[in-house]
Design a protein that fits this description.
Helix content: over 70%
Shape: rod-shaped
Structural class: mainly alpha
Largest sheet: none
Distance between the termini: 95 Å
Strand content: under 5%
Number of helices: 2
Number of strands: 0
Length: 63
């Protein structure tokens, strides 16, 4: 009985170590943080351009 439990426990540990990734290093974290910031800046820039386009259309009728 104890042997079966040990085998089961070893199999669970082996499966866990194969499927769960390790800790991410700082260089990779920094890389993806910069990518996220750049994407956010581009999104905000696009929103401002769209807003400016709509604002220019709202001008009204000039006679």
């Amino acid at each position: 009985m104890a042997t079966n439990r040990q085998k089961l426990w070893q199999e669970i540990q082996r499966t866990y170590t194969e499927t769960v990734p390790g800790e991410t290093d700082e260089a990779t974290k920094e890389k993806y943080r910069k990518l996220k910031l750049r994407a956010n800046d581009e999104r905000i820039k696009a929103k401002k351009q769209q807003s400016a386009k709509k604002a220019s259309r709202r001008g009204g009728f000039s006679e």
